[in-house]
Write a sequence for this structure.
């Protein structure tokens, strides 16, 4: 069911007239069919062959939050491994899908549940695309569409660079899913070669960097990868990226109680972030174990300090905490509420 190679898919059309592949893509990405039998434009024999050799059903277990704004799915891959994908429905009609790029993650950030389960493997291109197709079909039933895709689920997208970009190209392709490039965001812990490669792509997608601490000492405690890619290296890469692309870079900062949320931290952060195309996104921490979230008053004060120093700041509110679908909570465990 999952992750048959796309080339294999195209090969199934080798003996068909050229327009058949286009018809199939339209049925798959535009009409959002769930089974090839629904592709009325294709001959019956081809539909049967496709169902046999390239089935498109996606079986998943769905969890919906109490406020109905967040839906999480647990998808089982062809080798039995599991991943999670999250849909967040915003009040302003945006429907954002938070996509996973790896099964697990080996970077072991101390605040993240995914990091605790270790690393299994990279996701293939089609396994990434299918996460989006699942929710596109789901939203179609309520006459809604996917409006944004963020690579903030399980895994570090730049450690699976080729497949992540491959999936984005299919999802962005006019003959594919046809979602505008500006509606994609990749969130990285700051893998510098990934940032450098992305700057050279002709794709106008958004870049987010998880900073979470304003100095190397604290950041290395929270994110061991900081020893390889310390703050200065990351900011240099971000500056080069901005020079090449003229695009903004978002720096994510999880607010953890009594750890990275003091006035001193805010002032140091402001010193790093006061650049024209930088902006900071403050995120309430979703408890996954040892840490606690900052009080909202503390976050307010932190935000004010940054703003007073001329830093652009936004604040992201929690989504899907009750179904463990919030940032850093994805572990692909079965059988939870
Ligand atoms: S925060 Fe991201 S990079 Fe860090 S362990 Fe979790 S999934 Fe991996």
């Amino acid at each position: 069911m999952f992750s048959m190679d796309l080339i294999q898919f195209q090969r199934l059309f080798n003996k068909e007239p050229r327009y058949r592949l286009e018809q199939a893509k339209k049925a798959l990405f535009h009409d959002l069919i769930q089974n090839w039998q629904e592709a009325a434009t294709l001959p019956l024999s081809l539909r049967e062959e496709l169902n046999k050799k390239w089935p498109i059903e996606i079986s998943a277990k769905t969890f919906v939050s109490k406020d109905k704004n967040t839906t999480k799915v647990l998808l089982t891959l062809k080798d039995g491994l599991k991943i999670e994908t999250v849909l967040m429905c915003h009040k302003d009609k945006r429907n954002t899908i938070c996509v996973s790029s790896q099964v697990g993650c080996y970077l072991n950030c101390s605040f993240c549940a995914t990091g605790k389960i270790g690393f299994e493997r990279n996701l293939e291109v089609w396994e990434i695309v299918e996460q989006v197709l699942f929710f596109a079909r789901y939203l179609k039933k309520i006459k809604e569409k996917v409006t944004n895709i963020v690579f903030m689920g399980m895994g570090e997208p730049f450690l699976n660079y080729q497949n992540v970009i491959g999936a984005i190209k299919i999802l962005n392709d006019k003959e594919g899913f046809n979602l505008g490039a500006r509606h994609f965001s990749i969130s990285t812990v700051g893998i510098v070669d990934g940032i450098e490669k992305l700057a050279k792509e002709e794709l106008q997608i958004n870049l987010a960097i998880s900073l979470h601490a304003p100095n190397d000492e604290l950041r290395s405690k929270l994110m061991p990868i900081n020893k390889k890619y310390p703050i200065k290296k990351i900011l240099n890469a971000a500056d080069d990226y901005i020079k090449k692309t003229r695009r903004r870079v978002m720096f994510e900062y999880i607010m953890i109680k009594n750890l990275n949320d003091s006035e001193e931290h805010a002032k140091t952060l402001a010193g790093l972030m006061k650049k024209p195309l930088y902006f900071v996104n403050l995120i309430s921490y979703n408890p996954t174990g040892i840490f606690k979230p900052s009080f909202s008053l503390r976050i307010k004060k932190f935000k004010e300090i940054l703003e007073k120093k001329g830093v652009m700041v936004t604040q992201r509110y929690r989504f899907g905490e009750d179904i463990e679908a919030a940032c850093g909570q994805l572990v692909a465990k079965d059988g939870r509420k």
